[in-house]
């Protein structure tokens, strides 16, 4: 299991990205308070340090995807509930290719990167783009609520569903599965992989 002792700092000069970090930190702090958890207790349960959690809650550091999933699991909520987004979004939303900060999936030097394309409590689904490079695996095993659809844009990806089997996906291939099934991604071949993940809430 990858370490969760550090995370990527917010880039200087990026007002929108800084606001994302602040919003995410506030949501984590609010959920922790609602669960009557101290910062020390949440940090210990999520396998991170208390100073690191403090940096996340203050908006100074963005947690990796692995850390975000751990925090959400301890807090008893979906990871998508912690992701920033408009509670009352406009019906039409455009995300340009240069918009949205890429966040490391875990804390290794060659970690895959992810950015949010569309999210928000009022939207039925969260869409994320993943870019996998040198690392053979995309972080840890993952599970969530709702339904997931994995769509491969480029490269070759192997998706393993615990106890169900594994599937090799190429460009244009897609796989849908319940988020509650533990799943893991790995690169097949030498080419970088780009993936779209659509997470649809069931309630």
UniProtKB/TrEMBL annotation:
It holds the Pfam family Cupin_2. PANTHER family: HTH-TYPE TRANSCRIPTIONAL REGULATOR, METHYLPHOSPHONATE SYNTHASE. Residues 28-82 form the HTH cro/C1-type domain. The keyword DNA-binding applies. SUPFAM superfamilies: lambda repressor-like DNA-binding domains, RmlC-like cupins. Keywords: DNA-binding. This is Helix-turn-helix domain-containing protein. GO terms for cellular component: cytosol. GO terms for molecular function: DNA binding; DNA-binding transcription factor activity. The keyword DNA-binding applies.
